[in-house]
Design brief:
By secondary structure, this protein is mostly beta strands. The chain contains one helix and ten strands, in the order βαβββββββββ. Helices cover 3% and strands 44% of the residues.
Length: 132
């Protein structure tokens, strides 16, 4: 039987070297079939508004073009960004309730498999030992 929903994945398995949020939390816009903006998109399961953040995967072995992903978060209120790291625009984060949904992405060249990431919550990453 085919998988009918998002696949739960452990944060440390997906981001073994950590994840860094860059930019701002943005609402995900809902569009009508005729291209009209219809406010903020809602999560189909919870009914909560959907938000998104850009995330840099800290894995140095990530292939070109795979170092940045978008993580969607369903939340009643706008998720709060973790604090910046040492004054840089990188915010170490952990995503709880992380799921991945594979899909086929059409576009230039031949179709390829892509992944949509969702999380229940975004939290600041714990500080490494000895970094106090």
């Amino acid at each position: 039987m085919a998988i009918q929903s998002a696949i739960p994945v452990n944060f440390d398995a997906f981001f073994p070297r950590g994840a860094f949020v860059v930019g701002e939390v943005e609402p995900i816009v809902k569009w009508s079939d005729d291209g009209q903006r219809q406010g903020q998109d809602l999560d189909k399961n919870s009914g909560h508004p959907l938000w998104q953040v850009r995330v840099i995967d800290a894995d140095p072995d990530a292939k070109k073009g795979q170092g940045e992903v978008t993580v969607k978060i369903a939340s009643i209120s706008e998720p709060q960004l973790p604090p910046e790291m040492n004054g840089l625009p990188f915010r170490p984060a952990v995503f709880e309730g992380l799921t991945v949904t594979p899909y086929v992405k059409e576009g230039q060249g031949r179709p390829r498999v892509a992944y949509s990431l969702r999380a229940r919550e975004m939290k600041p990453a714990p500080k490494p030992r000895g970094s106090e």
